[in-house]
Design goal:
- The complex is a heterodimer of chains A (306) and B (169).
- Chain A contains 12 helices and 14 strands.
- Chain A is of the alpha+beta class and 306 residues long.
- Chain A has a 5-stranded antiparallel sheet with strand order 4-5-10-6-7. A 4-stranded antiparallel sheet of chain A has the order 11-12-13-14, with helices on both faces.
- In chain A, a hairpin with a 2-residue loop joins strand 4 and strand 5.
- Chain A is globular.
- Helix content of chain B is 33%, strand content 15%.
- Chain B has 5 helices and 5 strands.
- A 5-stranded mixed sheet of chain B has the order 2-1-5-3-4, covered by helices on one side.
- In chain B, helix 2 packs across helix 5.
- Chain B starts with a strand and ends in a 10-residue tail after the last helix.
- The chains are: A alpha+beta (306), B alpha+beta (169).
- Chains A and B meet through helix 2 and helix 6 of A and strand 4, helix 3 and helix 4 of B.
- The structure holds flavin-adenine dinucleotide and FE2/S2 (inorganic) cluster (2 copies).
- One FE2/S2 (inorganic) cluster binds next to loops of chain B.
- The site of one FE2/S2 (inorganic) cluster (FES) has 12 residues of chain B, from loops.
Chain lengths: 306, 169
């Protein structure tokens, strides 16, 4: 099908885009178009005016800021996947990009578009929630910063208001000694995940404080709720531990699984999604623990293989 | 029509200037505006890959791109690859490996593969299959397409031994 008619403009500055948006109640913002254009094609949406943000260069790019990283909302998935800065500071984000749709869609789709679209199975909301990202949003009245968990309100719903534009996303630095793992299960490579999960484990402490411990543990899930979520109860079971045993990892994964109540759809039942959550969390905690010698005292079996 | 915009595009080396409605998809602009019907349309929501073309060297879905967004861009469609008399290197590997049957999916595959070959070392068959997963083929069962990519990769590696962006892993 084809979209219903609309007018189009491509402002070159954020201020111009904000004033066009403020003056045109029926307008929609266009970024990569990889979620919006399918909806226009199928007439699930229509609009009077499409404001194309892709000519605004100030909204694009990946910059270091102290030890954290700022990603412009209009940066494409592909630019993130190949960024040396991301590879160095957030290899976890680079790894996750390989799972976002297909190359031709990654070439156009943007970080900001994905977060505003807020698909419950998408990778960017998962990463934002895991990494405690902050989203910088601009309106005619000024700018504000929103925590990822507050930004993501529900399925296909963000807390952005109609006259605001997402400008950039800040990813605060992880503690220095942090291990991570990411994986998802999808029907085919590039499909939206039935369940996606990511974990980070940070260690700190010295012999003075009784030896190294897991000072921070984070577990995030997508595809199993209205939006990407953390598994706080499971995280608490890991935090403060000296090392992980098979038993503890399994208990944490069970705890993460029992805290969710996923929807069933054409692709997977609720039970199957719960099962995937258990399997993924268990596997990823093991992977992260193994990749960091600090968690794996030679005497303790850390976790079985995949 | 109410809103028309003037665009300039270079398609397969030829410059065109047209007035288009903003809602016109790049796939329809190529097929109906320029009569380049080698770009195929399957699903119009990004799933099948049949409409994939190269815009400024990057593979994109022509069905998820507006013609107005291609203003000032350089586009390469299947018609720019070669023809029956003089085929591109990639077309020849498809022919040798029997990488097509009905040919409906082939223009999209060639655009995707061109971009893959430029961007990634394609170290394994698994990685090639992962990167081809955005293009659907109802005929070949994919094996011969994968073989064609392997052959094209090896031919290019011989032609330009170093100079490759090295992928992590
Ligand atoms: C076949 C297919 C498979 C896909 N698979 C995946 C997948 O596996 N994982 C995944 O994560 N995604 C997937 N996607 C979606 C893809 O990642 C999109 O790129 C992304 O969801 C939307 O980004 P966009 O830049 O294309 O946004 P657009 O489609 O342009 O916009 C999406 C929405 O966000 C709004 N918006 C965009 N940018 C801004 C901004 N800066 N400020 C305010 N509002 C804004 C728009 O108004 C619109 O409502 C897939 C898409 C397709 C077609
Ligand atoms: S027609 Fe564009 S992806 Fe199917
Ligand atoms: S050759 Fe017929 S669809 Fe691929």
């Amino acid at each position: 099908m084809k979209p219903a008619p609309f007018d189009y403009c491509a402002p070159e500055s954020l201020d111009e885009a904000l004033s066009r948006l403020g003056n045109s109640p029926g307008a929609k913002l266009l970024a990569g178009g990889q979620s919006l254009i399918p909806m226009l094609n199928f007439r699930l949406l229509s609009t009077d005016l499409l404001i194309d943000l892709t000519k605004i260069s100030e909204l694009r790019g990946i910059q270091p800021h102290g030890r954290s990283v700022r990603i412009g909302a209009l940066t494409t998935h592909q630019d993130v996947e190949t960024s040396p800065l991301i590879r160095e500071r957030f290899p976890l984000i680079g790894e996750a990009m390989r799972h976002v749709a297909h190359l031709a869609i990654r070439n156009r789709g943007t970080v900001g578009g994905s977060l505003v679209h807020a698909d419950p199975s998408a990778e960017w909301p998962l990463l934002a929630v895991l990494l405690n990202a902050r989203l910088q949003v601009a309106g005619l009245g000024g700018q504000r910063l929103i925590e990822a968990q507050e930004f993501l309100v529900g399925a296909l719903t963000s807390s952005l208001s109609d006259d605001e534009i997402l400008v950039r996303i800040d990813f605060p630095a992880l503690p220095r000694h942090t291990a991570w793992a990411f994986d998802e299960v999808a029907l085919r490579a590039g499909d939206f995940a039935l369940c996606a999960a990511a974990v980070t484990l940070s260690t700190g402490g010295s012999f003075l404080t009784g030896g190294p411990r897991i000072t921070d543990a984070r577990i995030a899930l997508a595809g199993v709720a209205d939006t990407a979520i953390r598994a706080p109860a499971a995280e608490r079971m890991i935090r403060g531990q000296r090392y992980l045993t098979l038993e503890l990892v399994d208990q944490a994964a069970v705890c993460a699984r029992d805290a969710i109540s996923p929807n069933a759809d054409l692709h997977a039942s609720a039970d199957y999604r719960r099962h995937l959550c258990h399997v993924l969390v268990k596997r990823l905690l093991g992977e992260a623990a193994r990749s960091s010698a600090a968690f794996a005292p030679s005497s303790a079996p850390v976790v079985e293989g995949k | 029509m109410p809103f028309k915009k003037r665009i300039r595009v270079t398609v397969n080396g030829v410059r065109h200037e047209r007035s288009v409605e903003p809602r016109l998809l790049l796939s329809d602009f190529l097929r109906h505006g320029l009569n380049l019907t080698g770009t195929h349309v399957g699903c119009e929501h990004g799933i099948c890959g049949a409409c994939t073309v190269l815009v400024d060297g990057r593979s994109v879905r022509a069905c998820l791109t507006l013609a107005v967004q291609a203003d000032n861009a350089g586009i390469r469609t299947i018609e720019g690859h070669g023809n029956a008399q003089s085929m591109s290197a990639l077309q020849k590997t498809f022919k040798r490996c029997h990488g097509l049957q009905c040919g409906f999916c082939t223009p999209g595959f060639l655009a995707t593969i061109e971009d893959m070959l430029n961007k990634y070392p394609l170290e394994s068959e698994g990685r090639i299959r992962e990167l081809l997963s955005g293009n659907l083929c109802r005929c070949t069962g994919y094996q011969n397409i994968v073989d064609a990519v392997l052959m094209a990769r090896d031919e290019r590696a011989q032609a330009e031994p170093v100079n490759r962006q090295v992928e992590k892993e």
